[in-house]
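task queued by scheduler; priority normal; single chain, no ligands, no partner chains; default sampling; output format set to C-alpha cells
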Amino acid sequence: MATLHDRKRQLLRRLAELDGRLQDIEAELDTHQSKDWGELAVEREEDEVLQGMGSSGLAEARQIRAALARIEDGSYGFCVRCGDEIAAERLDLVPATPFCRICAR
C-alpha cells in the first residue's frame, strides 16, 4: 500500500512529465509556419491534435495540483463530495481523483 509520501512523489513526477510534454507541444506549435498550402493544411491538422493533447494535459495538471493541495491541507484521500474515504485501490489507479467510486459516477 502506497504511503502519502509515495503518492505525493508519484503526483509530482507525473506533473513534471506533463510540464515537459506541454512545453514540447508549445514549441512544436510555434514551428508550424509553412508557406506551402498543402503543407499548411497538414500542419493545421497536426496543430488541432497537439492542441487537444495540450488541453487534456493542462486539465490533468490542474487535477494533480489540486490533489497536491489536498495533501498539504490534510484532506487528500477523502471524497470532496461526500467526505467518505477514497479506497486505496482507486487512488492507486487514479491518484489525483477527488471522488470516491460512488460519487465519481
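post-processing summary
- The radius of gyration is 18 Å.
- Residues 37-73 form the longest helix (37 residues).
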